[in-house]
Amino acid sequence: MPSNIPRVKSPVYHVPVSTDLDDPRFTAFGLFAEAFTGLTNRFAAQFEEHRLSAVEFEVLMRLARSPGRRLRMTDLAGQTSLSTSGVTRVVDRMDRDGLVRREACPSDRRSSFAVITEAGVGRLDEVLPGHLELLQQWFIGQLSPAELDGMLGSLRKIRDAVNPCATAGTTEERPAA
Amino acid sequence: MPSNIPRVKSPVYHVPVSTDLDDPRFTAFGLFAEAFTGLTNRFAAQFEEHRLSAVEFEVLMRLARSPGRRLRMTDLAGQTSLSTSGVTRVVDRMDRDGLVRREACPSDRRSSFAVITEAGVGRLDEVLPGHLELLQQWFIGQLSPAELDGMLGSLRKIRDAVNPCATAGTTEERPAA
DNA sequence: GGTGTTTGTGTGACGGAGCAACTATATGCC
DNA sequence: GGCATATAGTTGCTCCGTCACACAAACACC
């Protein structure tokens, strides 16, 4: 309880800040951040029940949706928010745990693929229903169809502005640019 | 196997995944994530120009907006996405850098306050205008007033659902609950 | 075909953050 | 008052991810 802060005794003469600290734009982004981290925390809790971290889940997901259920390391890095060395290490761990294996690229001997294993598919299969439930419960289901629609439109605008290289991002490939 | 009749050209027979991997709800959240991380990356780049990390910026901001420009360590942890030990360490660093100082709590000798210093206020003052520009450029300005309004409404719904303890979150104090 | 450059990946060192354990203080209950 | 319990903060340990660098293979250009 901050009741013990001597409110009156010192009228606290602070050096002023030239920017308005209560500008609604700050709180707007704060809302964005709280909503996002709140969601990811909920999801992380469920991932953990299945012995997965959020990045591991994302890796499994991205691999499972890719043609041949495989992706070159660099491409995987591009699709996740990881550096290439980060991908190296995640794939190391997941390889050790049997969720993923490395496979040489026949056409470019520098490259290697990360391929999701049967065990990886199994694990994903195990997590997905619950994940979808959470997604529905805390995100989709909180909004009316119209609200959801508006939100997705706005998010897409922001995403396209801020992350132009991945215009088609999640599902499709990046444009020729 | 009638090897002379190549049934399909697809050589990869995968164990099926029972959940639809292309459920639009996945991509909806993917959009959310890409927009958010895109924004935070932009911001982080500017913070770095002023020798600040995102969490340090947030700490400065929270302290500057709090009565007496101070916050108990635990409260600071509650307002940020950090654990209490995380806060201890951030405050250590920022104290070392002169942006913040610790001050004993007179009424509870277990507690200590983190107080933003003049240098901290100065640093914040230095970052804020540019930060506000970025906020405007990549977030607020991307949306029409109506879109922004809708988005904030939706975000608030999600935030309130997912993070009920901080109903008034960013600016106000949590409710008595 | 050699040589320089670019690209794909892995590695060592480092820093940040969480958990669990610990200390010190406060509080409740008798 | 005296003890049990709860709370505030710090610290040791560990994991995870990045950066800078190393190395190998592909490519470009002459």
UniProtKB/TrEMBL annotation, chains A, B:
Coiled coil: none annotated. This is MarR family transcriptional regulator. It holds the Pfam family MarR. SMART domains: HTH_MARR. InterPro entries: HTH_MarR-typ, MarR/SlyA-like, WH-like_DNA-bd_sf, WH_DNA-bd_sf. Gene3D superfamilies: Winged helix-like DNA-binding domain superfamily/Winged helix DNA-binding domain. PANTHER family: MARR FAMILY REGULATORY PROTEIN, TRANSCRIPTIONAL REGULATOR, MARR FAMILY. It comes from the Bacteria. Residues 22-160 form the HTH marR-type domain.
